[in-house]
Design goal:
Alpha-Beta Plaits, eight-stranded mixed β-sheet
Amino acid sequence: MSRSGFDAPTFSRIQSDVEEFLLGGPRCYTQSQIAEFAGVSRERADRLWVAMGFAVDDDPDAVMFTQQDADALQGIITMVDRGIISRSSEVAAARALGQSMSRLAEWQVSIIGTHIVDQLTESADDDPEAIRKQILRLGAEIIPAVESLQTYVWKRHIASSTGRNVGNPGEEFSSRILIVGFADIVGYTSLTRGLDPTELNDLLERFESASTEIIGRNFGWVVKTVGDEVMFAVESPRHAAEIALQIQSAVLADHDDPQLRVGLAMGPTLVRFGDLYGSVVNKAARLTSSARPGTVLIDSELAAAVSDDANFKLRHLRPRRVRGIDRLEQYVLRRNLEP
């Protein structure tokens, strides 16, 4: 067993220990119980949880929330009740916080993880239980320091932003195998010329809200949104395919809404400061721009990964030469509706 290759029971125990340390205790609430604690409906609690970028267990009786989770939910509801956050914008506020914190957490984990692996490499102890205790000790040393620094930077940004807006209210990196996707609104540029600011805001809010919920529910995360486009990532090929198809079927689904294009590519991806880089990102972007309105295009790597899944159908298209790629393999991804 290598230091980074723990057996499943040891790895599971380390994960549980780290979670309890970070969240102040074990999981003790179901979805219904945490909603009752905060005095809200389960649907509202789930909506806020998913908006922050987390998945909800398919089993409604699963014990998945800690006391800190319950206190945080109650804190959000209190802010809404006091008028600090309007009820109409609570999901948008939770989503904005979740997206920012998700990117920050990805970067911080790469720093902490690298340090812990370095420390373990220097240790001569190979006993799994001793390694587990060493990881917890290192975490107890590092995480409070990171939390303190993060709080300081946040407060400093609050002070800086307040100063700029007075009188106007209102190098760490890693490589991972990921599926990177883009979803964009077809004809966005011409569309904006025919919409007033309120209509455009409504369109973008519906686009971002629905796509973010689908991505979060399927264990992906939003990397960033830029105008008419959302960029996301996910580790599971099956979940990536589900995200793409659900976005096409459920986002901007009204008769008068513009159509969407979705492109996905799979492979080694550079994760740097919460953003993604590399040829996979380029391929996903090119597939998106090549896709016909209302369709999903994926690359050959992802096609191979989902080819045996009976939930999906693939159609191989003629390879294309696009900017930066001499031969772009492309497959149309559809849901298999046959019994």
